[in-house]
């Protein structure tokens, strides 16, 4: 069995308004940060998982992302995978 | 009708289950039974309410974890058999997360948790959930949510409009919902999800009775 460290990034789709991102952008400007054109908030999920090789693990992660980690009606996801 | 029983589903974090039961039993004399979310035996209930609250603490997304409860798995068969399912607030979020209804519910546009009475236009009474037979096309119900902004893509919205699946629209959109949507049904009409709380509008002493019709509709065949 191989072990992998997976980082999943879940983001609101570009067409979905992100009011929390807008509020944070507004606070960033109040802090004095200049030049912020856009700020959107997503989630990062770290998973340690084992399986027989990268392909099997990718299948599992795809299922998790598609069915649980992200709601694909409003969110996109991508992930990176590192063998431990 | 004598033995008609409405199952009120209880998740960890549900907080409107007792209100729903109170409204059904106390105001409408309809028998209820609490169903713990881990049960998958729906054989002795005739309709189901998924009540409001914060199932599983709204972790990940509202309704995202509840979707994997055994009871929600069993709901597919129940819905296919034509029995009625009403999802209120968090119940609506669970119905969209689990795919019984299209779209999703996301954070209110102004980020506020909104607790207020709202005026709603009855758009369609598919499934007979609302009385739009004669003059009363507008009702007033309470809302209480932080993540009630209905979102769907334009194809889904077209389908909702074309198939008369939009049940309720806000008169003054409080949360930024697409097309002012407050509630929708499935194509068959036996599943209704809405953000407003009909169970909190079942007695004049607490501000109105516009929710009675919808709860009473649970007993329709």
Give a count of the beta strands of chain B, DSSP E runs of length 2 or more.
11
Strand order of the largest sheet of chain A: 2-1-3
Low-confidence stretches of chain A: none
| Strand arrangement across the biggest beta sheet of chain B | 2-1-3-4-11-10-9-6-7
Mean pLDDT of chain B: 95
- Describe the global form of chain B: globular
Q: What's the structural domain tally of chain A? A: 1
Stretches of chain B where pLDDT is under 50 for at least 5 consecutive residues are none
Order of helices and strands of chain A: EHEHE
Largest two-chain interface: A-B, 12 and 20 residues
CATH 2nd-level architecture of chain A: 2-Layer Sandwich
First-to-last CA distance of chain B: 10 Å
Q: Report the top-level CATH class of chain A.
A: Alpha Beta
Radius of gyration of chain A: 16 Å
- Indicate the structural class of chain A: alpha+beta
Number of strands of chain A: 3
So how many helices of chain A?
2
* Helix share, percent of chain A: 25-40%
